[in-house]
Design a protein that fits this description.
This protein is of the alpha+beta class. The chain has one domain: Cysteine proteinases (Cathepsin B, Chain A). Helices cover 27% and strands 25% of the residues. The strands form 2 sheets. The protein has a 6-stranded antiparallel beta sheet, with helices on both faces. It has a two-stranded parallel ribbon with strand order 1-2. The chain is globular and about 45 Å long. It starts with 15 loop residues before the first helix and ends in a 15-residue tail after the last strand.
Length: 197
């Protein structure tokens, strides 16, 4: 699916999930801003830091828990809470092989926005940030290269990566693909965030 990201502001620290959800919602015609989204889920931040406009936050020393931690049904429960007719389907990276990674993403991109959760330090070759979680939207992919929209703050915008490096970065974080699409006839009360494979 085509993503309109022009005139979209970068994320603040620890709000990459909320920022991407805001962008996807805008592309589907919904208007819920990243701060409301962040307050719904809650944000983990280092001690001594604060994010303006966010009341629901928790301080932690564990950098692996920084940001918004999405659990099994959180995104679909959020959609249900706001009466948003979208559904999130999760594909765990553990269910994909290197040779099935690209075909699966290409198939899901036919009717979904595909968010990938990955190890920031590994993907961007920053050892000091190894295992720090981050998310981006995949906008194009081939066997060799992947084009992503990174919400920032530091690497905001379109980036081109090696497909295998992204695959390994998702594996390092033990994350997966968060596929978000429209759902006219689905009751959110029966949805579970589980692998669709």
């Amino acid at each position: 699916m085509e993503l309109n990201y022009l005139r979209f502001n970068p994320s603040e620290n620890y709000l990459c999930v909320a920022t991407l959800l805001e962008l996807i919602l805008k592309n589907f015609g919904y208007n819920v801003d990243r701060y409301e989204i962040a307050d719904y889920f809650g944000v983990n931040i280092p001690f001594g830091e604060k994010i303006n406009k966010i009341q629901n936050y928790c301080n932690t020393e564990d950098k692996n828990k920084y940001g918004i931690i999405i659990n099994q049904d959180d995104i679909n429960n959020f959609f249900y809470h706001y009466n948003i007719k979208l559904i999130e389907k999760f594909i765990s990276i553990n269910t994909l092989l290197e040779e099935t990674f690209v075909p699966m993403i290409q198939k899901m991109m036919e009717d979904s926005y595909v968010i990938c959760g990955f190890d920031y330090g590994y993907v961007y070759d920053e050892p000091k940030n190894k295992y720090l979680g981050h998310v981006s939207i995949i906008t194009e992919i081939t066997d060799d290269n992947v084009k992503i929209f990174d919400p920032g703050p530091r690497n905001f915008g379109i980036k081109y990566l090696d497909t295998y490096r992204l695959f390994c970065g998702i594996k390092n974080k033990k994350d997966g693909l968060w596929c978000i699409c429209e759902c006219d006839n689905v009751s959110h009360t029966y949805l579970k965030r589980s692998s669709i494979i």
